[in-house]
Amino acid sequence: MSYTITTPLYYVNDKPHLGSIYTTIACDVLARYKRLNGENVIFITGVDEHGLKIQRTANLNNVSPQNHCNRITSQYQSQWDEWRVSNHKFVRTTSNTHKRVVKEFFNKVKANDDIYLGRQQGWYCVGCEEYKEITEDTERPFCNIHQKGLEWRDEENLFFKLSNYQKEIEELINSDYFIYPIQRRNEIINFVKGGLRDFSISRVNLDWGIDVPGFPGHTFYVWFDALAGYLSSLLIDQQSEINLDNISNLGWPVDIHVIGKDILRFHAVYWPAMLLSAKLPLPKSVFGHGFLTREGQKMGKSLGNVLDPRTLLDAFGVDPIRWFLIRDIQFGSDGDFKQLRFVDTVNNDLANTFGNLLNRTVTMSRKWYCESIPQPNNKISNHLSDISHEVITKYFKYMDQLNFQKAAELILKLSTAANVYLNDQCPWTKIKDPANKDVVANILYSVLETCRISAILLQPIIPDFSNKMLLQLGIENSTIQFDESLKWGLLKSDTKLPEPNPILVRLELNENM
Ligand code: MSP
Question: Quick check: CB of 260 below 6 Å from ligand 1?
């Protein structure tokens, strides 16, 4: 059995921005967590390379659309590596496999009698690549997301009979296990209640797309093309004939599509209906997360306040940003990136609560116990082992619910308890009396063990930071199973402790940002 996770396939009209990084990091946290739990994870991400938006951007830059896509796509691929994204599959919708998959998928939908030629008239937003419902009576309707006027279209398109799937889609979205978080479910239920209308799946006069077989002059609508990318990602290595009916052996259906709230409708309504038509299994769930703002303002090029992930990476490094996005924002709700808050949070949590605790405890252990982990005379239970036990149980619960913020808070709670314990116990005073050597060994061992457990729990969120903590404890490449490794008392006494280094150097505000 596998567990398949997807990010959206990002438009390559521009390089990655913090919003795309956010979605992908959240998926990575989930993928790493599931993997640690022994699941065979298939983590899919990629890029959406066709459509008018991309064609126009390439024209503006005086390059061919393919060259433009190659340039931006390689930036996505290299950034994903730098952000420590552990995806297995990276799909490009300009790949030959994908083009074959889209055609094969279309043939199945057509064979099910769900395609017809019709006339499409309406107001189109190129930024959203979507026809918009117009309720107000204005001469030139406007897209609130892109802050641009809509374009009038009147052309012959192929249509998909979405209306055929009203009943099945209603059943699906009403289930308790399909749309997450719960607060987004109603929005989709209301939309579907209004009655599903057929939508156009081809465009004429648009070269930058995949040709529709049997309909010269038509290319596929970019969403019909891109959604099928989830299927092609699993078939990418297949040289032979594309056989969609075999896909169940390759990790289909998807367990969770993680996307922003802006494209929930496409994933929770259109896509399942398309799959029903092609007689392919439906995704098990869809999670629509919130949007990021910067200093309380929507990020946008026109506002000149887009946060460039490259600049962020160079200024602060991966772990601080991963930590902040996961720990500060309730996954599912909107979140804000304020530099001051970011710097304070990271310094308090990573540099002080985790880093400094480890650093000073290692220093004391090295000084008083031959540069090694002290030998406690009672490993079994104390105040910290009780808290650790409670934290671990809740951590699994929250991670399973994708409540990453609460899981992060729990790890902090554990480390904060260890900091308080250390200050209360004052081993630096106790050690002055040689009779207390065993007592102090117990204290230091418990705190180091708490650090080990915290580091393991941090693995999915900030893998590099976690690894540095483990190395500081003399632990290299532990192969032990996740749940096994969380048992209290596994830290090996007498292990040599390397000289401590700050795990994270405190961040400073960056005025150029
Ligand atoms: N290409 C389509 C998706 C096709 S999936 C088969 C698309 N691409 S996109 O690049 O415009 O946006 C993809 C996703 O980026 C959004 O759904 C969302 O996940 C993320 N974000 C874009 N801006 C964002 C923020 N400001 N904040 C958080 N995430 C946002 O739509």
Answer: yes
| Residue 400 CA neighbour count, 13 Å, CB half | 8
Mutation to probe ligand 1, out of 146, 259, 330 (largest number of atoms < 8 A from CB):
259
11 CB under 6 A from ligand 1?
yes
How close is the Cα of 332 to the center of ligand 1, in Å?
A: 14
Residue 57's contacts (CB-CB under 8 Å, 6 or more residues apart) are 13, 14, 68
Q: Could you tell me where in the chain the CATH 1.10.730.10 domains are found?
A: 340-485
Alpha-carbon gap, residue 452 to 349, rounded angstroms: 16
Distance 66 CA to ligand 1 centre (A): 21
Spacing, Cα 263 to ligand 1 middle (Å)? 7
Burial of 262 (0-12, 13-18, 19+ CB in 10 A): middle
Tokens of 471: 């190395």
Ligand 1 center–CA 144 separation, angstroms: 16
- Can you name the CATH fold of 2-290? Rossmann fold (3.40.50)
Residue 288 CB–ligand 1 contact under 6 Å: no
Q: What is the DSSP letter of 402?
A: T
CATH for the stretch 340-485: 1.10.730.10
Report the separation in Å between the CA atom of 262 and the middle of ligand 1, taken as the mean of its atom positions: 7
- What is the per-residue DSSP string for 152-177? EEEEEEEEE-GGGGHHHHHHHHHSTT
- Quick one: pLDDT at residue 440? 95
* Ranges for all domains in the chain classified under CATH 3.40.50.620: 2-290
Long-range pairs, 296-302, Cβ under 8 A, ≥24: 296/336, 296/338, 299/17, 299/18, 299/19, 300/147, 302/147
Most informative mutation of 263, 299, 324 for ligand 1 (most atoms within 8 A of CB): 263
Half-sphere exposure (Cβ direction) of 478: Cα atoms closer than 13 Å? 25
How many Å apart are CA 239 and CA 372, to the nearest integer? 55
Averaged in consecutive runs of 10 residues, what is the pLDDT profile of the chain (513 residues)? 96 91 97 96 98 94 97 96 96 96 97 96 89 80 85 94 98 96 94 96 95 97 97 83 88 97 96 98 97 82 76 95 98 95 98 98 98 84 90 98 98 98 96 95 96 97 96 86 91 95 94 80
